Amino acid sequence: MEIAFETMITSYLEDKIGIVPHFISDELAQHLKQNLLDLFQQKLLLAAGVGNEKKLVHNSEVRSDAIYWLDKNHDNQYETEFLDYIEDFIAYLNASCYAGITSYEFHYSLYEAGSFYVKHLDQFNDSSSRAFSMICYLNADWKIEDGGQLSIHQLGNNQKIAPTQGKTVFFKSDELEHEVLVTNERRMSVTGWLKRD
Questions:
Q1: How far apart are CA 4 and CA 174, in angstroms?
Q2: Per DSSP, what are the bridge partners of residue 20?
């Protein structure tokens, strides 16, 4: 566990984007994926919006994914296992980097074929609480032609990251513009933010 945490931090410090291919185990990724699909079948995923609760708007020309917020109160074994793991990472990050993270929020995200999310920052105009963005992918056997890459825009160093199972990406929420390119297959992740309240 600590090896994955240290690898994430080291990768982030090298070029402002932390990437670990197997930050979460394949077993956990598969369980989370199945839980996401079960929630989708129960019609519990909702169209994602843009903005915080005060200024939330839905615009399918900006983003076209569906989401479901994770919560330990759901009493789902795998949601709880994932969130416990995130809490361990936060403790490690705070202890080693004095990051000052005090809370977090994560949701499942499902992009059907043809879906996308245009270029944006993860920081709200009227709130600076989101410090770091994290995306954990749940897509086994993802191929280049499936599309759906996370495109992160950096001066002189743009990156396109394939959403392969277990891979996790970590970066500052107010610093790097990014987008989800059009996906040609169903694309799933757990996406969230480490926050300073």
A1: 24
A2: 168
